[in-house]
Amino acid sequence: MGCPIEGEKIQIHSYKHNGLIHRVWDETTVLKGTQNLVIGGNDKTIVTESDGRTWITREPAICYFHSQHWFNIIGMIREDGVYYYCNISSPFIYDEEALKYIDYDLDIKVFPDMTFMLLDEDEYEKHRREMNYPDVIDKILKSNVNTLISWIRQRKGPFDPDFIDIWYERYLMYHK
C-alpha cells in the first residue's frame, strides 16, 4: 500500500461490506499523506452514487482518514460553523486508483456547538443481517462509535477547535 503525495488530487471510493461501490468523490487534494494518516480537502467536488446519480458538494470540507481507526471524519465549513459527518468505516487503504474504505452505515453528525447525533442505526442493523457482518466486526464498529464519541467530547483530533482552520488554510494554498 502506497501513500498519497501532498498536493496530489485523488479520488475517494466508499464500498459496502459486500464489495460493491457505494460512493465516489471525484477530487480531493491531499494535504497530508502517510501510511497511517491522510488529510484531504475538497470543495464543490462531484460525488457519484452507486446508482450513477451525481451531485456536487456545497461547501469546503476537510477529510480525516486513519489506518488504525474504524471511522473517518469530514469537517464541512459552513457560514455558521463547522459541521462534522463521521462515517463508521473500515480503516482506509490507498492504492494508485484511490483512497478506499468500507462504509458500515452508522454515522455521527456533529454540530458546531459539539452536540451530536448517532444516525442510521436501522440501516446498520438491516445491512448487518443482509451482508452477514461477522460478530467481531460488529464489536469493532460499536467500540469505534464509543471512541469517536470520546474524541468529540474531548475535542480530540479533527474536533480540536484549530484543526479545521489549520488544514483549510493549507487547502487554500493549493487553490489560489
TrEMBL record:
Domain of life of the source: Bacteria
Function: Has nucleoside phosphatase activity towards nucleoside triphosphates and nucleoside diphosphates.
Alphabetical keyword list: Hydrolase, Magnesium, Metal-binding
NCBIfam families registered for this protein in UniProt: PRK13662.1
Cofactors that this protein relies on: Mg(2+)
Organism per entry: Sutcliffiella cohnii
A Pfam family recorded for this sequence: DUF402
Molecular functions (GO terms): magnesium ion binding; nucleoside diphosphate phosphatase activity; ribonucleoside triphosphate phosphatase activity
InterPro entries: DUF402, FomD-like_sf, Ntdp-like, SA1684
Residues that, per the record, bind Mg(2+) 1: 87, 103, 107
Protein name: Nucleoside triphosphate/diphosphate phosphatase
Lineage of source species: Bacteria, Bacillati, Bacillota, Bacilli, Bacillales
